[in-house]
Amino acid sequence: MATTTAQRTLMDSVFDGPTGYAGVEATPEWAQEVRRLARERNATILAHNYQLPEIQDVADHVGDSLALSRIAAEAEEGTIVFCGVHFMAETAKILSPAKTVLIPDQRAGCSLADSISADELRAWKAEHPGAMVVSYVNTTAEVKALTDICCTSSNAVDVVESIDPDREVLFLPDQFLGAHVKRETGRENMHIWAGECHVHAGINGDELTEQARTHPDAELFVHPECGCATSALYLAGEGAFPAERVHILSTGGMIDAAKASHSNQVLVATEIGMLHQLRKAAPGIDFQAVNDRASCKYMKMITPAALLRCLVEGADEVHVDLAMAEAGRASVQRMIAIGNSGGGE
Ligand code: SF4
């Protein structure tokens, strides 16, 4: 691929810093170069809702991980640049094995996905022979390959209800989503892995109750797709916020609800990246984060410098072993077939 002067100048500034690739600002020149390089590579750029605003703005599509994986599978382009965390890019590769999937920084992991390894799951399965394994989508390809049915926060209850009531269920890795599903289904023979996402640590019951008291007219939007707000989902069910003001919504549902809302203020329980899309959709509403520290450091590793480097160098490429991809695909497809797995388009 020919290297232009603009590309060289921008690329010369990229360096690998303590929190990922840095050295490039999101200027109009950068955005133009990113778009040009994407065309040259026949690539489509997908950005998760929790990405930096400048990454969302330069992308072809913005959405949640499942919606983006579906877009990846249907895209005409042969290369997918997935601006999100590693398990999401892996899921896109599982659903589109013939495509080249790139992630701007493969070190962008996920504390929830990392809370269970394939070996730990094998050992857990051995303790409960015959149990059905239900995994939230925030898992590695290796764990998905050992899973019977994947689920999103939108269809987790339907997925568990679809399983023979006499069969044990192993639910992983998110303990808050697991507790929510157990409460909703009343299922006793369900075991829950004690995993969690570091981002939701600040969204606790006291904080939510306090927010309800100090913002008596505000509505609460909870988008638990990524694990960062599953604790809010659980707490809302416990009554920490008045039920009539709580809306548990997918990404698309959240944008529609924002456009239709007559409230002056909406509190948002999710990773703060989501605020960018909401403020664009309904500029008249004051959107406030329930916890403004709820920022995912892994998502924020996809910087302007990382995206530029990715498009220039064709790195980092995501590989999933073919047999593993096939097994993982089966668990993801079972998820898509049950209930509303849409989770947020
Ligand atoms: S917000 Fe939490 S669950 Fe989502 S990618 Fe970050 S660490 Fe993982």
From TrEMBL:
One of its GO terms (cellular component) is cytosol. Iminosuccinate binds at residues 48, 65, 136-138, 153, 223-225, 251. One of its GO terms (biological process) is 'de novo' NAD+ biosynthetic process from L-aspartate. It is an enzyme of class 2 (transferase). Pfam families: NadA. [4Fe-4S] cluster binds at residues 110, 197, 296. Binds 1 [4Fe-4S] cluster per subunit. It catalyses: iminosuccinate + dihydroxyacetone phosphate = quinolinate + phosphate + 2 H2O + H(+). Keywords: 4Fe-4S, Cytoplasm, Iron, Iron-sulfur, Metal-binding, Pyridine nucleotide biosynthesis, Transferase. Its main location: cytoplasm. Gene3D superfamilies: NadA-like. Catalyzes the condensation of iminoaspartate with dihydroxyacetone phosphate to form quinolinate. This is Quinolinate synthase. It comes from Nocardia alba. The lineage of its organism: Bacteria, Bacillati, Actinomycetota, Actinomycetes, Mycobacteriales. The gene is nadA.
